[in-house]
Amino acid sequence: AGIIRFLALFATLLGCWFIAQTYFESGGRSISLRSWLAPSSLAGQQLPQNKCGNQRSCPTKHFAFKIISGAANVVGPSICFNDEVLMSNVKNNIGRGLNIALVNGTSGKPLKTASFDMYSGDVQQLETFLQEIKDGTVILVATYDDAATKMNGKTRKLFSELGSSYVKHLGFRDNWVFLGAKGLQGKSPFEEHIKNDQKTNKYDGWPELLEMEGCAPRKQD
């Protein structure tokens, strides 16, 4: 039994020495664990990132997008489309209420961005903005703080015509992210919302932020 234990110990030590020699030393040069795990052809190369930092790449004839709502009244929202950040804190073009970006649905070219204070602002400005959207235009929306106090039946109807299913239920300090289009047939599949509820809110008077990403199909002429 003593000889067997000795042989087992000797074999273990010999195996450790062999691994150290083979994998961590080669010609007097150290080999990093990263290099050992990665194929030599990929060593030192960075993996490609998807547009807008999304988890998945989009197929051809689709645009990548990511919409993030505001967090309470502290951190503003952001909107990315086709790998270009259209609205964010850094760009300093966001505001309390509704943050909206318009994009050409065929080319993906940004057209316009605007924010509308829906707590103490003039809702007529939002109505005019929505009415002037042309066919084939993609609309991306992110809420920040409160986006419903000034919302009226006419603006809710205009959003519904752009493909929203939830806007008619949007309430005080609800979080909402939405991608729709002028001339869209049916309802948009790109919409998420969280109700403001003291029992489930992540923050004191606000629900947690929303993040939605996906691939919007290019409008075909």
UniProtKB/TrEMBL annotation:
* Keyword ATP-binding included in the entry's annotation: no
Answer whether the UniProt record assigns the keyword Kinase to this protein: no
* Pfam families linked: ILEI
Q: Which residues form the signal peptide?
A: 1-22
Q: Which UniProt keywords apply?
A: Disulfide bond, Lectin, Secreted, Signal
Q: Where is the ILEI/PANDER domain?
A: 96-183
GO annotation, cellular component aspect: extracellular region
Instruction: Enumerate the GO terms in the molecular function aspect.
Output: carbohydrate binding
Subcellular location, record wording: Secreted
Q: Which PANTHER family match?
A: UNCHARACTERIZED FAM3
- Which family, according to UniProt? Belongs to the FAM3 family.
Q: What is this protein called?
A: FAM3D protein
